[in-house]
Amino acid sequence: MKQVSLTFSMLLFIAFFNACSVKSNINVSSPDKKVELTFENNEEGLTYQLNRNNEVLVGVSSISILPNIPVKILNTEINSVDTKWNPVWGQFSEIRDFYNEIVIHIEVDGKTGKLLSRVYNDGVGFRFELDDVTAEDQLDFYAEYNLASNDVFYYTVGEHPPVGPVAIGSLSDEQAKLSKMLLPVVVEKSNKNHLSFLESDLYSSKGFSTMTMNFNKKSGTLVSSSKPKYISEKVVTPWKVILFGDSAGDLVTSTVTVNLAAPCEIENTDWIKPGKTMWDWRVHGYTAPDGFVYGINTESYKRFIDFADKKGIEYFLIDASWYKRATKGHFELTPELDLEAVIAYAEDKDVELILYYDRKFGEYGDKELFPYFQSLGMHGIKYGFMGNNVQFSRDAISQSAASELLIDFHDSPVPFTGVRRTFPNAITREYCHAQQDSRKAFTPETFIKLALVNAIQGPLDMNNGNFDITGINAGKRQKGPKKLNSYLSTVVSEVARTLVVFSGLVCIPDAPEAYEAKADLFEFIQKMPVGKWDESRILNSKMGEYITTARRSKNDWFVGSVMNQKGGVLDIDLNFLEEGKIYEVTFYEDTPETDCKTNPEAYQIRKAKVKKGDVIKANMAPGGGHCMWIKSE
């Protein structure tokens, strides 16, 4: 990745004081001067306050690295940085890293270090660095988030729908004992500001576990804790991040977390290619129009590969049960599957393969695993059942990169926000309640919450894009919803979801024949580039109600909207188009008869001309969607 400096970091030493002469208040503002971060140090410790547009985002709140130990401020300095860099893949082809930073040099419990705080126009990051640490030191990177009593928050809980809205001022004692509040947390403030609390660059912070969040009933604040399982002489914490914006959607496209992450550690990234993938897991048991029944066998996989080759789909993902068990250095393959024949067939068709590895089926040996997958000609690995183990997952990322493998983490993984900059082979992860996952019901409201909460931490493997919704709901798959007719969506909504949810690997879960039967609708997915976006915007967003995402690739724009079960109309302002140009737009729409419960597969396609400033009235059925492919003439 190339990094181009626009303005070299200006180092301004504000003061070199001893502890008694340092000002009690230390301030730094964002480059646009709309955000102000204020620190104060007193007998009770170091506190911060965050304001935006002269309104309080986070009231006076504690921040520490060694709890309950006074901090001595030695000196402070301010850096102003404005650079640009180009990610290997992402929501933007070029990212501006533009911030003002205050470095507070400290002494705490006889140890020297510093607190780094970077203030962006749309976010803030905090990180401690501490020297001369020993194993006896009880480190805890602790921060409070002092919010107003009428603010509400949402949070993720692994493979379940996000929780919220929860009103801070009305929490019961039981609710205050929240113990499984996972990152990110999203706050809707009474003054209409939106916040998110999460972390970045955990990968670089050796020894630290994932940041935990909780609610302190006594102080009435949300609190975060980052503790190391082991420490070395010099400690560098992850970044604690606060994102802010006017809408929930603003948080999803923020580049603060990737800017705070360490630069790319892979020297040659030419082999890292984002894209779309076919997937077999949700198709097992599907009967094609010609009577063929899909399963875990050679012929089924050849059908997937044929379709991928025909439609220009880059990958085919072979999920669990391609092997029966693993022992040290050996896989016992499923008898019905000739894996060598499938590999040769994919190579002949120019389709790359990604292969699942599930540790609950036995241990092959992690050090040998990645080179073995590479020797098979695999382009990636989907890694299952590793759990929230930071060091284990860190090793998996670096080891897969050494074997030139993309890695897709399955099953409530470590979020590792920002790691796609450091190791862009970390292509996606199932940090969500995935489509039909655990055979649970999946609603439009849940999807919209996931797209506005879980997606803030990075790319999601959510498996959107089912076309045979009626068949799935009728139980005609081995792995359909546990309760029949509980999978609520429309085919146009399914198409929109593949765009709305950002990922470096968009996994489409239905059968080739289901897509071929609606080839004109599948065109949107087929033509949509993945991962290599030049620009991304969230045009409309309201938690649990609706979302509109627009992404640009060169001169083409792809726009997708999803609506909750009430249905309705969204205004989509085309002000993002270039002035003076006429564009051809293809609309992929619900019909007046479409309904996520009674008629999910009805759709219509039409074309029109549009220009900058036009406002599209996107009519969506209950649980429906709306898509536009906009091309310049």
TrEMBL record:
Q: Does the keyword Ubl conjugation apply?
A: no
Pfam families in alphabetical order: GH97_C (PF14509), GH97_N (PF14508), Glyco_hydro_97 (PF10566)
Q: According to its UniProt record, which cofactors does this protein need?
A: Ca(2+)
UniProt signal peptide: 1-19
Gene3D superfamilies linked = 2.70.98.10, Aldolase class I, Golgi alpha-mannosidase II
Q: Which residues form the Glycosyl-hydrolase 97 N-terminal domain?
A: 28-263
Q: Where is the Glycosyl-hydrolase 97 catalytic domain positioned along the sequence?
A: 283-430
UniProt keywords (A-Z) are:
Calcium, Glycosidase, Hydrolase, Signal
Task: Cite the GO molecular-function annotations of the record.
Answer: carbohydrate binding; hydrolase activity, acting on glycosyl bonds
Q: Locate the Glycosyl-hydrolase 97 C-terminal oligomerisation domain: which residues?
A: 532-631
Kindly state the subunit structure of this protein. Monomer.
State what protein this is by name.
Alpha-glucosidase
- Name the species this protein comes from: Algibacter lectus
Taxonomic placement: Bacteria, Pseudomonadati, Bacteroidota, Flavobacteriia, Flavobacteriales
